[in-house]
Amino acid sequence: MIFDTDIFIWVQRGNEKAARLMEKSTSDRYLSIQTYMELLQGAKNKAQHKYVKDFITSFGFIVLPLSENIGHRASIYIEEYALSSGMRSGDALIAATAVENNMPLVSSNAKHFRAIKDIKLKTFKP
To answer: Which residues are CB-neighbours of 7 under 8 A, at least 6 positions away?
Structure first.
């Protein structure tokens, strides 16, 4: 399962339901490189950078890299959904990573991904 950036934010805010969701996913914890970069970008200082990196490592998350196919699929999503659904490039990359790796994406922002027909979306309700 691939975790969207918002799930990590819920955990950082102390949401126990989000933490339990991550804990239950013992053998399949993935995130896209886009999510990893968003988490680092949201850090306010080096200590928070270290916290993000340590959290990812200690929970055994695997960061999925970009590939040519992911980039191509994300660009198609932008072409198809940016005007009609407000698709943003970060969400397109995260969605394309999930689809290209044939994995479900868990997110509490279902509206960001709803338009994509070939995604396996698991909606998290905090």
So the answer is: 18, 21, 22, 106, 107, 108, 124
User: What are 96's strand-pairing partners?
Assistant: none
Distance CA 40, CA 51 (A): 9
Q: Rounded to two decimals, what is the model's pTM?
A: 0.93
SS3 20: helix
Tell me the pLDDT band of 74, cut-offs 50, 70 and 90: very high
Degrees to nearest 5, angle at CA 126 with 43 and 65: 45
Least confident range of 23-27, 54-58, 102-106, 118-122: 23-27
Q: Does domain 2-123 have CATH number 3.30.70.420?
A: no
Question: CB count, 10 Å around CB of 86?
Answer: 11
105-107 and 121-123 beta bridge pairing: parallel
Amino acid at 2: I
